[in-house]
Recover the amino acids of this structure.
């Protein structure tokens, strides 16, 4: 099965959303591998921003999450098993960590290219 992953900003993702169709296990696993392989890691705050392309669109379905929900995605991607691991990336990057946004979808200033 082919899985396509694109990245858009929050308002674009919300406009695309026609239902709350969840990702299947396979698609979610591919997304986690994509995040891990590309070193992508950023906070739930940036995930919900209109200034960055930080909402994954998997096979045409945007994955819009709460702040904690996105923290959980990052924890899953990096296999962090602590029971409160989702909190580490929910609001901001953990101390000493650098946020890495998806490549190729943002300009040098990390703002959406027009």
């Amino acid at each position: 099965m082919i899985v396509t992953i694109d990245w858009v900003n929050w308002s674009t993702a919300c406009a695309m959303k026609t239902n709350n169709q969840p990702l299947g296990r396979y698609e979610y696993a591919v997304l986690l591998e994509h995040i891990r392989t590309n070193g992508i890691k950023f906070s739930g705050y940036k995930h919900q921003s209109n200034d960055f392309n930080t909402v994954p669109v998997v096979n045409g379905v945007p994955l819009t999450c709460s702040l904690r929900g996105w923290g959980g995605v990052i924890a899953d991607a990096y296999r962090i098993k602590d029971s409160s691991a989702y909190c580490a990336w929910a609001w901001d990057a953990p101390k000493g960590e650098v946020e890495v946004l998806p490549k190729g979808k943002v300009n040098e200033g990390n703002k959406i290219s027009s």
In short: Residues 44 and 61 are 18 Å apart (CA to CA).
